[in-house]
Design brief:
The structure is a homodimer. By secondary structure, chain A is α+β, with helices and mostly antiparallel strands. Chain A contains seven helices and eight strands; from the N terminus they run αααββαβββααβββα. The structure holds a DNA duplex.
Chain lengths: 243, 243
DNA sequence: TTAAAAAGTTTAACTATGCTAAACAAAAAG
DNA sequence: CTTTTTGTTTAGCATAGTTAAACTTTTTAA
């Protein structure tokens, strides 16, 4: 086995840049690597040319933060910020529709309810905050399937006669959701409950949450469900600042 | 300026590994770089030797995730797993003590309540799930200050006459908390409420959540508070698997 | 301001390094 | 078991990478 000297040294230089407090001088680097400064210069220039480092205005070198995936998913901080920014939207939806509104985020293969505003009517839906629901039979879950990067679960449990358990049928439903701009749940998770939901995006255009309105079927016929969908879709949300 | 060929190629190989879906075969890499496979082999071996990649059992290469900060904080998935694993502890504490139990995670400068089990008694504490509270005057927050990596907030608002707003006094309180093994809140956030809390750690030994029991002061004298603290500290929690 | 020193870049030239090619070894497929 | 594919090692030559020295630029000192 033949280890490549210049590559080994270059990677070592990268290590040094990563673990350094601040910017690193050429001479320091040459000393640290135990090579001539001309050589260190070539190494560092190569790191810069490959996008692994940058040279600041005082000619010192800094490691370029790896872009790859800044971390998969959203941080707790982003999620809470989103929750707080979506609150007014939830409240105004409840005011306008009389039905309750929910906010949820994607966690692996389920949605996690992180906020809600209750309906004031005596007959009402109540998914408690902190509860988790499946993706394939809830409006919030379908929003993640249609607009987020959730993957269709293999297992699709049946909760009601209306639950869509066929993969192809669900794919078609998701395609419809995309073109419509909002997702619906027509008594697919719990009998007597209908729901319409939309995606909420972060500053990078990544879906971070789903926001929905749900109520009892007795108050929500097809026309009303479409109306709720449009209202949910149109409700203004303060843009979430990039992290 | 002289750019180093083998270093440039090595960094390009790293890029390919980082952006690849799964593990990369030697031959693919050689093709992608436009070099002989023997050369690609040397490059990859060098990346491995420098700790930038690893070779799996089927001899394919994967980029080693940059260790530095594996990502700050916990993922939603870890948090929900923790919540579900802590549920039995919350329930058993409520059964044993008659008071209510809460679970919270750290979000920036506040704690976020993500689960609770209510007391069955008519006079009870109720921090709703989804709400956020400050660190310096709650038992859950103090647990993060003492056992987690929360930093002491500059602004320490006064909520009750007992709220500790002096930095030195709070530091002393945190030191006491560390040696005691659990934190307490003696009517520092809301009059008439006392609370005892403990940290919950993940597989890496990082604090992920705080778990506490709280009740009305009329039922909780100093001796009872110490007793609750010991109960909270001793309650068994299923270890959280590493991510 | 000027001179001296230090830090960084470029050039030149030699040889050790890192390529290609080919042989060898080890898995995987048939 | 044989064949094919994939990965590793070896050999040897050409060149990429090293050192050393010249040259620039920036910083420090006078």
């Amino acid at each position: 086995m033949r280890l490549l000297q210049s590559l080994t040294r270059g990677l070592r230089a990268l290590d040094i840049l990563y673990s350094a407090e601040g910017p690193v001088r050429l001479t320091e680097m040459a000393d640290a690597l135990g090579v001539e400064k001309s050589n260190a210069s070539h190494i560092l220039k190569t790191l810069v040319a490959s996008g692994y480092a940058v040279q600041d205005d005082s000619r010192r070198y800094v490691a370029e933060p790896r872009k790859e995936e800044p971390c998969q998913g959203h941080s707790l901080s982003e999620v809470v910020t989103c929750k707080e920014l979506c609150r007014p939207a939830l409240e105004s939806l409840v005011r306008e529709t009389g039905e309750c509104a929910h906010l949820a985020v994607l966690v692996d293969t389920r949605v996690w309810y992180i906020d809600k505003v209750d309906s004031t009517l005596p007959l009402k839906v109540d998914h408690p905050i902190g509860s988790l629901s499946p993706l394939h039979c809830t409006a919030l879950g379908k929003a993640f399937l249609a607009f987020g990067d959730a993957t269709l679960p293999e297992e699709k449990a049946r909760y009601t006669p209306k639950t869509i358990t066929d993969t192809d049928a669900l794919m078609a439903e998701i395609a419809r959701t995309r073109s419509r701009g909002f997702s619906v749940d027509d008594e697919e998770f719990a009998p007597g409950i209908r729901c319409a939901a939309r995606p909420v995006f972060d500053a990078r255009g990544q879906m971070i949450a789903a926001l929905g309105v749900s109520g009892p079927s007795v108050r929500i016929d097809d026309a009303r469900l479409a109306e709720l969908g449009e209202l949910v879709r149109a409700v203004p949300i303060t843009p979430i600042q990039g992290a």
